[in-house]
Amino acid sequence: MAVKKVSTELKEVSFFRNFATVKRHFTVELGEGPAVLLIEGIEKESTIIPGSVRVFSKRGVAVTGVNVKSAVVGVEEVEAEKQTILERLRDAEDKLKLLEGEVEGLRKLIDSLDRAVKKGIEAFSTVALSGDGGEKLSNFLSEVSRRRREIVSEIIKKEREISVLGDEIKRLNVLLEGEKERALELGAIELAVSCERGGKYEFNVHYDVRDAGWMPVYDVTLGKEEANVDFYAEIMQNVGIPWENVTAVIHGRAVLRAWKPKPEPWFIDAVRPTPSPSPATLFKGVGAQPKEVKEEVEAVEKEMLAPAFKRAEAVEGGLAFQISSKGSFVPGRPTLLLIERFSMNAETFYVWDAYTSPGFVELVKIKNESFPLPPGVCRVFKGDTMVGVSELPYMALGQTIELPASWEERLECERKMTIREEEKKGVVKGKTTITYGYSIKVRNHLGEEVNAVIYDRIPVPRDPEIIVELISSTPPPSERSETGILKWEAKLKPEQELKINYKFTVSYPPSYEVWPLP
User: Fold this and answer.
1) Sequence-separated (6 or more) residues with CB below 8 Å from residue 464
2) Residues near 495 by beta carbon (within 8 Å), at least 6 away in sequence
3) How many angstroms separate the first and last alpha carbons of the chain?
4) Where are the beta strands (DSSP E) in 393-508?
5) Which residues 6+ apart lie within 8 Å of 189 measured at CB?
6) 8 A C-beta contact, residue 251 and residue 14
7) How far apart are CA 113 and CA 221, in angstroms?
C-alpha cells in the first residue's frame, strides 16, 4: 500500500513542568478504503513519549494503527545540492590540472632559454669579438631576458590562479562534507486509516514530548509595606526542531505518576532526643548566590515588560496561562516570558542565629492572595538592585511564607563567652558542675526601626545523668523550646543597642567525659 505524505500545521504547544503537549492539524484527500499517512519532519523520535499519540477526526474515517518512528528529512534537497557542488568541484579540479600543466610547460621553456643563453655565450666567446659580433651578442641576451621576464610574469599569474582554485576546492570540499549533516534524523508518525467513503478529511494529532517544559522564575521587589512580584516562565525545549509562531499555553502544575496509597503500621522506638533544626539551617544559603544561579540571573535583562500572558481558568487545581500572541521556541535556547505582575502585603524582620550564623538575614513575610504559585528560583530586588537569590516554595492561595531576602551587614552583632567556672566534686559527694555565661550584642545601623529576632541555645543532654539548667537571662527569652532553643524579639531604633546576657550550668558525674562543650 502506498504511503501518502502529509504536511501539518503546528497549532499549539502546551508546556507542563516536565514535558510538553504538541497539537498539529492537517487536511488530506482520501479515497474509500484503507490508507497510510506519514507525518514527517516533526520532533525527534527519542523525545516523543510512547503511547501518547491521540488522533481526532470527523466521522467517516477511523484510525486503525499508529506508529512513531524516525525519518531522515531533506534527503532530496541535500542530494541535489551535493550534485551541484560535485560538478563545480570537478570543473575546478580540471582547471587546476590544466593550469598546473601550463605552468610546468612555462618552467621548461625557461630552462630552454637558460640553456640557449649559455650556449650562445660559449659560441661567441670562441670567435673574435670584432665588427658587429659584440652587438649581436648583446641583442641576443636582451631578447632572451625580455622573453624570460614575460614567461616568469605568466607563471606568477597562473600560480595565483592555482592558489585561488586551491582555496575554492577546499571550500567546496567543506561544503560537500557539510551536506552530509544537513539531512536530519527527526521523528515521524505513521497513521493507518480506513475511510468509509472518499473525500477531504481534517485530522488533529496530539502527542507528548520529553526534553521540553518550563521553570518558574520570580522577581520580588521589596517596598516598605508590600512586595511587587513579577512571575516569569523560562521555557526550554530540545526536541530537534524549532517551534515557530505557535500558540503556547503554560500549565502551572507538574504531571506526575500517581499510585494507590497502601497503609502501613506506624512503628516507634526509643531514640535519644536531637535538637530541632536551627533557623540558620532553615535559611542556609540565603544570601550567598550560587555561581550558576548568579550567572543565569545576570544574563536576563532587567527591562520592565508588559505581561505577555492573560489569565486562564483553573485546571484541576492548577492554573493555565494562554499567551496573548504567538511565540517561537528554539531548541537549546531558553525563552523568558512574563506571565503576571501582582503585589503582596509584606512584613520585614531580621533573624540571627547567634550560635551558627555570622550575621542577620532579612526575611519578608508575604501572603499569596493571587493564585497558586509553583516553586521556583526567586530573585530579590530593592529598587533596581538585586540583593539576593532564594527559592520560592509552592504557595497555595491564602498561604503565608517567610521569604529569605539577603544578608544584612548593617545590623552589627557579636556573641562571646564571658564565664566558664568549673566546680569538681568527688565520686561520693556529688557531680561536677560547669557554669557558662554568654553575652550577645546587637546594634542597628540601618537608619530605621527594625524588628529583630535572635536565636541561641543551651545544650540538650542525651544522658539522664547530665543536667543542664538555665539559671539567668537578661532580658528573659520570649520563647524557650524543649530542645534548648532560646528566642529573643526586640524592636531596635536607629543606633540602638541590645544586650543579652545569660548563664547556664552543666552538671554530670565526675567519671563522665561530656562532649562537646566549650
Assistant:
1) none
2) 443, 444, 445
3) 86
4) 400-408, 411-423, 432-444, 450-457, 467-474, 479-480, 485-492, 497-508
5) 38, 39, 42, 48, 53, 66, 67, 68, 69, 205, 207
6) yes
7) 88
pLDDT for 465 beyond 60? yes
DSSP letter for each residue of 283-309: TTTSSSPPHHHHHHHHTS--------E
Angle at 464 between CA 458 and CA 465, to 5 degrees: 95
Torsion of CA 155, 160, 165, 170, to 10 degrees: 130
With CA atoms as reference, report the closest residue to 390 among 366, 417, 425, 363: 363
Dihedral angle over CA of 296, 297, 302, 305, nearest 10: 70
pLDDT in tens, 154-193: 888 888 888 888 888 888 887 777 655 555 678 899 999 9
The answer, yes or no, to whether residue 262 has pLDDT greater than 60, is no
Q: What are phi and psi for residue 30, nearest 5 degrees? A: -125, 150
> pLDDT digit string (tens) for 401-442?
988 888 888 999 999 999 999 887 655 457 889 999 999 999
Burial of 389 (0-12, 13-18, 19+ CB in 10 A): buried
For cell 600560480, name the residue.
159
Q: Which residue has the higher pLDDT, 147 or 382?
A: 147
Residue 373's identity, in one-letter code, is: L
Grid cell, residue 464, equals 539522664
* CA–CA distance, 60 with 83 (Å, rounded to integer): 45
CB 359 within 8 A of CB 386: no
pLDDT in tens, 324-353: 777 788 888 778 788 888 899 889 999 999
Q: Name the packing angle between helices 133-182 and 75-125 (round to 10°).
A: 170
The share of the chain scoring above pLDDT 70, in percent, equals: 80
Which residue type occupies 107? R
Mean pLDDT of 240-245: 89
Question: For 448, which DSSP code?
Answer: S
CA proximity to 375, closest of 399, 347, 351: 399
Instruction: Average the pLDDT over 50-76 and give the result.
Output: 82
**109-113: average pLDDT:** 85
Helix (H, G, I), strand (E, B) or coil at 275: coil
Output Rg (C-alpha) for the chain, integer angstroms.
42
CB 450 within 8 Å of CB 492? yes
* Predicted TM-score (pTM) of this structure: 0.58
Instruction: Provide the mean pLDDT of the chain.
Output: 80
Q: How many whole angstroms separate alpha carbon 439 and alpha carbon 441?
A: 7
